[in-house]
Amino acid sequence: MSRMALVASLVAPALIGVVQAAPAAAPVTPVALPGQLQARELEGQPESQAQARGDVEFRRGPLLIRADTLEYTFGDDKAVASGRVWVQREGATYRGPRLELQVQDFLGFFLKPEFDFQRSGAGGRAERIDFLGNQRLAATQALYTSCPRDGSADPAWMLTAQRVELDLQAQEGTATAARLQFLGVPLLVWPRLSFPTSDARRSGWLPPNINLDSRSGFEVAVPYYLNLAPNRDLTLTPKIATRRGLSADGEFRYLEPAFSGEAGLNWLPQDQVAGRSRHAWRLRHDGELPWQFGPGAPGWYGVRGERVSDDDWWKDFPRTTSAFTPRLLPLRAQMEQRWPWAWVGEGEASVYLGTQRWQVLQTLDAPILRPYDRSAQAGLRITSLAAGWQWGLETELNRFTLPDVTPVASASSPGWRPTATRWHALGSLAYPWRQSGVWVTPRLSFNAAAYDLDQALPDGRQRLSRTVPTLSVDAGLEFDRRFEAWGRAWQQTLEPRAMWVRTPLRAQSAYLAFDSAGKDFSVSSIFSDNAFSGIDRVSDAHQIDLGVVSRVIDATRGSELLRLGVVQRFQLADQQITPEGTPSTRRVSDLMLVGSTSVVSAWNLDATVRYNADIQRPVRAVLSSRYSPGEYRTFNASYRYTRGASEQLEWGWQWPVARWSGGSGVPALAVGGSGGSCSGQLYSVGRVNYSPVEKRVTDSIAGFEFDAGCWIARVVAERLSTGRSEATTRLLLQLELVGLSRLGSNPLRVLKDNIPGYQLLRGDRSGASERNLYD
């Protein structure tokens, strides 16, 4: 009888999902899902039982059973399979000699099974697995690993337990008498180990962090994670360092319908090196205002900041602060309400309040200038569009203070900096016009400010004001053409641009620079109407900025193959107010040249050069290249030069340097790549910054990653300069057990932040949350 005939004649009730009434002595259990049975030989009684032999295949919903023989009883919906039994269900497969299972309720047992989980690429074996329902199972004498299990040798790493229980509904598992072993060395022995069965959060101990650096010595931290609620959690981390003693860290996170944020604390009750208590804290909080103006969306408020106990914190703990500049820590609070603007056009208006304060970490060998605090800030901003005209207005009141600076008595003394209250207003009116291939934007703007100084200027004034108007016209053309080369379609663009700016000279005090600084002369900043950022300084100008950019683009993929550009400024009159502080009489500025290309396969080249025609030499240059011929293969180099100021060379890389495979002539090290033989890929990673002027390496990272297939080892050394003759060096060690977790100190963020093009080996395949490894 054919296989299809067997299915049709003997399993018809299962196919339609209905079990008809059996004899009274055999009560029937309803079956909700249809089933299908196939085999080379099949016999039995319809609607009672069936025996199948030879290439047996039984399907019921997500369940698939294959075996040499299978006996199925309709009355109790029970399948007994023997021989080469293979079971697949919801991403997990089981193999073993015998299975007894009540199919619909998923109750039964599997003897001596081997199992694999497709999602994590890991699996193991057990003496017995008991299926306790659709969401629960228990395994006896279980072994779990992501290494090959061909029987030739023990896996490189394995987690064993006398009994493992999984509750998929509760999303947790427990192991009794658990033992984690790596290369024959026990890493963890625990009487009861708990772990998640999904990415859901739950309370428990996290993998320990190990750190070794030149300032704190050997440090061990063991975080404990508290899942307080679905929207709140807390991580407490006790630590001990050989040089500094005991310390503790804490991080609290929350997410509510109307607000969210996080708070962190680092605390050393008694630093044995510094001889005092030390701490650092950070805070981020954002939320919606409980009120709003008009029909707009609710307003928002936010608080962000961090503080440390002393000036040396950034040297001793360089990775604990998140500020962009480690020696300049902000603390800012702000609130803002927006609403639609419908008077004189349509647009948006917003009113805002705020305050900002700084903590400056000073050093004797390299002091930095403290920025002004904004003790109070209040402003109104409007943008609108009416009949093609774009207009905007910003008005703001600020209170600038220097609370931590010793005041200089005389205004004529070097370093004298006044404090003040400032009101300013910025306004603009523009009419953008665009047609195919051409655009023009005339703009009229003004910068007005009034100051009430706490200390008199050298000329005796304490109150002063000024208004500076600016007229500009920005215009450009856009040409493009298509062509074919190398068997592909390309598009080339030509984009010339010109900007005329006229700003009259208005008297401005050089002492008033609360938030102003000179802009860097670059391709992006040359097309601006002011050489300064901020409000307090406005450069006089009568100039024309010219530039042109040409690009070659792959017409099919949209990727850019080549970019070339050149910009230059032409002054029609002398400029009196400049970032350099001295009048500029040059009629022609330096020439800015930019270029980038990926014409050569696997290569990316970028260059920016500022060329001075008077001395016929470049005064600034940034040259960089990257070679990436394939995955986990990248090498980049860059050169930065500023004439008379700095010069720096940078190299970064991720590159395979050696491959081990089992055989003669290799170290006798079982790494699990193929049974117990030595196999895997060794990668070198690093970044080096070298200063030719100082003739020394400033910052550097160097290390190795070894990918053995089922585990990855990382060893990375990092050196950060904290002064002209000071540096902090630390060693990062991590062992990643693929399918389980990562142990040790994590160097991945360091590598990603410092090596352009760095790739995580084989992606994130840890398969288990790093939170809640055991409890």
Q: Strand share of the residues? A: over 45%
| Bulk shape | elongated
Total number of β-strand segments?
47
Q: Can you count the helices?
A: 4
| Oligomeric category | single chain
Provide mean pLDDT, rounded.
86
Structural class: mainly beta
Q: pLDDT below 50 for ≥5 consecutive residues: which ranges?
A: 1-31, 663-677, 764-775
Main sheet attributes: strand count, strand direction, barrel closure: 26 strands, antiparallel, barrel
Radius of gyration: 35 Å
Into which percent range does the helicity of residues fall? under 10%
User: End-to-end span in angstroms?
Assistant: 57 Å
Features:
6-stranded antiparallel β-barrel; disordered C terminus; 775 residues
Tell me what the structure shows.
Among the domains are: 194 residues, no CATH class; 165 residues, no CATH class. It is an all-beta fold and 775 residues long. The strands form 3 sheets. The chain has a 26-stranded antiparallel β-barrel. It has a 6-stranded antiparallel β-barrel with strand order 6-7-10-11-9-8.
Task: Record the SSE blueprint.
Layout: H1 3-10, H2 12-15, E1 35-38, E2 41-45, E3 49-60, E4 63-73, E5 78-89, E6 92-102, E7 107-111, E8 114-117, E9 122-125, E10 128-132, E11 136-145, E12 157-167, E13 172-182, E14 185-196, E15 204-205, E16 209-213, E17 217-221, E18 224-229, E19 232-241, E20 245-255, E21 259-271, E22 276-288, E23 300-308, H3 313-316, E24 328-341, E25 346-360, E26 373-386, E27 389-401, E28 420-430, E29 433-435, E30 438-453, E31 463-477, E32 479-485, E33 488-503, E34 517-518, E35 532-533, E36 541-554, E37 560-571, E38 591-597, E39 603-612, E40 617-630, E41 633-642, E42 646-660, E43 680-691, E44 696-707, E45 711-721, E46 727-737, E47 741-744, H4 748-754
Antiparallel strand pairs: 1-3, 2-3, 3-4, 4-5, 5-6, 6-7, 6-8, 7-10, 8-9, 9-11, 10-11, 11-12, 12-13, 13-14, 15-18, 16-17, 16-46, 17-19, 18-19, 19-20, 20-21, 21-22, 22-23, 23-24, 24-25, 25-26, 26-27, 27-28, 28-30, 29-30, 30-31, 31-33, 32-33, 33-36, 34-35, 36-37, 37-38, 38-39, 39-40, 40-41, ...
